[in-house]
Amino acid sequence: MSARPTKRTRDSEAGDEERPRKTLCSSEPDTRIILKYFEGEGDKKQEKQKEYWLYSQKLSSWSEVVDNAHNSETKEKVIEFQVTPEVFDLALNFLEDPTAARTMTVNEVFQVVGFYHKYLFTSGLKLCDHVLVAEFKKLGWDDQLKVAVVAHKYHLDEGEKLSIRRIRLMLKACAADLEEDGTSMSSLFSEKYIQTIHDLFIAGLFDDFVPVGTTKEELESACFPKFFCLHYEREWMKNTYASRVEKLKDAFATYKPRSDLDGLLVFASKTLDKSL
Predict the structure, then answer these.
(1) pLDDT computed for residue 165 by the predictor
(2) C-alpha to C-alpha distances, 273 to 244, 264, 276, nearest whole angstrom
(3) Which residues pair with 78 in a beta bridge?
(4) pLDDT at residue 260 tops 70
(5) Which terminus of the chain is less hemmed in, N or C, by CB atoms within 10 Å?
């Protein structure tokens, strides 16, 4: 019985002339990169560009956009990016150098994540998400809000879950005007901070904290942050006055009448001072 032919013997029988041959990769970078960006402001704003030569195989492994360009019928060897050289160099350094990736900061995430997202650098986006989660608890309130906005905008799932959960907990405390370490939660949601996360309100992530009766137009208005803060300030004032009234009721319930009206007024005045 003859042995079943293998792929190697079939290829041999087909003849060397029909067998596809691979060519060695060039030792020189084979893809021309053109960066287009603007410098200056106002009348002095000018469009500039800078060129790089990089390896197509490396770029394709990082970016789906580049990979699709290389696999198209035209097989593009010229790729354009709308980004400054500083951001481009920083973004590629994190992908090439493991040491740089391990020391990446949250501010550096803010600089490169937009580039990674626009040109589908999948590994870069995963790195950004990892850094935001790892550093989140070390951040101040301002940066925690920025993390929520950036993570939502660029679909960094883990960073978004963590930051949105944190903001929701703080909003609940804010609605009740609770305090933590002597800091009123209401102070953490000033008009400035609500402005920072306004887009998240519009996206419906905090619907249960939007004042009842707020219309879609009001929610999307630039005045919403001010409206939100005024609403909760009124609620806090109502709660504060209600609390003071209850204290007065308790005080007068234990009051023992004196013979003169002045004594009553003095007692009421002192009780009010203590409750304010």
Answers:
(1) 96
(2) 10, 14, 5
(3) 32
(4) no
(5) N
Lowest mean pLDDT among 15-29, 47-61, 141-155, 205-219: 15-29
- Contact 139/124 with Cβ under 8 angstroms? no
Q: Which amino acid is at 178?
A: L
DSSP secondary structure, 120-173, as one string: TBHHHHHHHHHHHHHHGGGS-HHHHHHHHHHHHHTT-HHHHHHHHHHHHHHHHH
The mean pLDDT of 161-175, rounded to a whole number, is: 89
pLDDT for the residue numbered 171: 86
Tell me the sheet residues that pair with 81: 35
Q: How far from each other are the two terminal CA atoms of the chain, in whole angstroms?
A: 104
The percent helix, strand, coil of the chain (3-state, each to 5) is 65, 10, 25
Average pLDDT estimate for 166-187? 70
CA gyration radius, the chain: 32
- Gap between the Cα atoms of 212 and 222, Å rounded: 18
CA dist 173 and 184 (Å) reads: 9
Q: Smallest Cα–Cα separation from 67: which of 123, 22, 126?
A: 123
3-state secondary structure at position 201: helix
Those residues with Cβ within 8 angstroms of residue 178's Cβ, 6 or more apart along the chain or in another chain: 184, 185
CA distance 32 to 53: 5
Contacts of 110 (CB under 8 A, 6+ apart): 146, 150
For residues 157-170, give the mean pLDDT.
Answer: 95
The structure's pTM equals 0.72
Adjacency order of strands within the sheet including 31-39:
46-54, 31-39, 78-81
